Amino acid sequence: MINVAIVEDDREIRQTLALIIDGTPGFSCKNTFEDCESAIETLPEIVPDVVLMDINLPGMTGIEGIRILKERLSHIDFIMLTIQEDDESIFDSLLAGATGYLTKDTPPADLLNAIREVYKGGSPMSTQIARKVVTSFKSDKKSPLTERETEILQRLCNGENYKVIADAIFVSGHTVRAHIKNIYEKLHVHSRAEAVKKAFKDKLI
Amino acid sequence: MINVAIVEDDREIRQTLALIIDGTPGFSCKNTFEDCESAIETLPEIVPDVVLMDINLPGMTGIEGIRILKERLSHIDFIMLTIQEDDESIFDSLLAGATGYLTKDTPPADLLNAIREVYKGGSPMSTQIARKVVTSFKSDKKSPLTERETEILQRLCNGENYKVIADAIFVSGHTVRAHIKNIYEKLHVHSRAEAVKKAFKDKLI
DNA sequence: GAATCTATTACGCGTATGGGGTATTTTTTA
DNA sequence: TAAAAAATACCCCATACGCGTAATAGATTC
């Protein structure tokens, strides 16, 4: 029996969802909330398995709500159930701790399935949304650095100093220095820290 | 009509897949390859819409193959079709440019669906695999740093020097140094570069 | 209420770092 | 084959950096 809770301000939607879920064998839905504030108050007592969470809510947003709830009740899985499909809503939700992300036009059968999937350790979402997630951690631009420079940048990221790098790649400290100057120029930075930041931001290493 | 190509070393599997796909209305599969090398040679001429790619291949791996093919034929979508389900294979595939990721036990109907999804701009994958992807860009451990320290770490990442930071947060340069020392101790690092690296790796900022 | 820990403030020392150059050899590309 | 890019090596110099040490105010714990 999967215990489900709902946080959704629209009374109609909230009750319909609860009815569908509670009326399906293997599911139970006895707790619904119209805002995050009341959910945060009550959830620690009932501790459901899965929570369906809207984003647009009066007061605290669903994203902020998940962030707070996840801190204390980290074992509860949250599924975003929202009309928003913009990149920011999706990424912020997942970063806040949402496990699944569905849009409100998801058919009941699919919704129930998604709840099952989350319960079994999956992250249900449309393939369109998955694409956004996949794209987000792929480096798009190709590195302007040479192989040698990339090797040195990697070592810069590890905090190795000129001499250590020089010894490691069997060249003089002067050469390392020259390479690093070129790296900085290509990346448009003026310090190690900025170079490291750019290395990670642009996924150069 | 979605034009599909297959790269798969097992003759049995390759031919079965080709038959299924080519025999389905709306799909065409006239080109199959038993390794990446021959695929790289021929694909630029036929330019399919979608390529099903195995990982374990004689010679070049499917991951390496995608990396090379994506450079020239960036508009082709690749679906990984493999037995591997380890995190590394998944992430390396997606980083190399794969759009979808399926295991070989995927039923034919689901496979055809996945091809359609990719063609429509989605990223088909099991919810279990999606979970791994989602988890990968979520910060798991909570920051050991104070608010002040986090603020300073952020500025360190931007390459701001002591004086600039000091002026920005209205304290002396000495104080900034002390904070940074504490940051380094907490993060177990000994330089800006390492701190910046850890900040991004652990998603502290 | 005392003890402890943490965050914040502060100073001096030696050195690695980054900015400014210049130059030769090898490899890649046009 | 000429030109461009990459890799190698060297110099000077101001300073930003990391390390050691220490005091004070606030929060937390016992």
From TrEMBL, chains A, B:
Domain of life where this protein originates: Bacteria
Residue ranges of domain Response regulatory in the record: 3-119
Pfam families named in the record: GerE, Response_reg
Annotated positions of the 4-aspartylphosphate modification: 54
Keyword entries, A-Z: DNA-binding, Phosphoprotein, Transcription, Transcription regulation
The HTH luxR-type domain, residue ranges: 138-203
Protein name: Response regulator transcription factor
Source organism of this protein record: Splendidivirga corallicola
